[in-house]
Design a protein that fits this description.
It is built from 8 helices and no strands. By secondary structure, it is an all-alpha fold.
């Protein structure tokens, strides 16, 4: 949710190539969130680059006057600022590669939902279980929990009393049976 708000906030300020803005992230919650490197995986590469620049620049800001001057450089399109921004952004932003693992994961999820919809509950569950068990190490605990919850939901709707508790991963999910 926080990643989405950051992305949307930055996006609202600069909708076109000629637009520019300054976004201030204020508050303990958002500062703590940005400070965790693990959270950066939820952001686009452009936003990651922008935040990295902001973190570096904030180290130079000691008071409100420094902050005001920094913001003013951006608004005035100062040459040193625009060059720094363009160079740094180009350095950090790579074309985001297509991640085949996520495509495979989405395909497995979609196939399982289609099987479930068509009444093939057991095949839908088997498809998910196979991916969970044989999936590689890229499957993080949240996604594993989501897939296990989906399998449990299919089993529950099917009416089988398959061991639903095996799908409850470290209290990430609560499945009422």
């Amino acid at each position: 949710m926080i990643a989405q708000r950051i992305e949307q906030g930055i996006g609202r300020g600069s909708r076109g190539a000629g637009d520019h803005c300054v976004v201030l992230l204020i508050g303990n919650d958002i500062s703590a969130w940005v400070a965790k490197e693990a959270n950066f995986r939820f952001l686009t590469s452009a936003t990651k680059a922008q935040l990295d620049m902001g973190i570096e620049m904030s180290k130079e800001v000691e008071n409100l006057q420094d902050l005001s001057k920094t913001i003013e450089k951006s608004f005035d399109r100062a040459k040193d600022w625009t060059e720094y921004h363009a160079e740094t952004l180009a350095e950090f932003v790579d074309d985001e590669e297509t991640n085949n693992f996520y495509i495979t994961q989405a395909a497995v999820e979609r196939k399982s939902i289609n099987l479930w919809h068509d009444g093939y509950h057991e095949l839908a569950i088997a498809k998910l279980e196979q991916f969970i068990i044989t999936g590689n190490h890229s499957l993080d605990i949240q996604m594993r929990g989501w897939l296990e919850q989906l399998a449990a939901r299919i089993a529950d709707k099917w009416g089988t009393k398959k061991d639903h508790k095996t799908y409850n991963v470290k209290h990430l999910l609560i499945i009422e049976i």
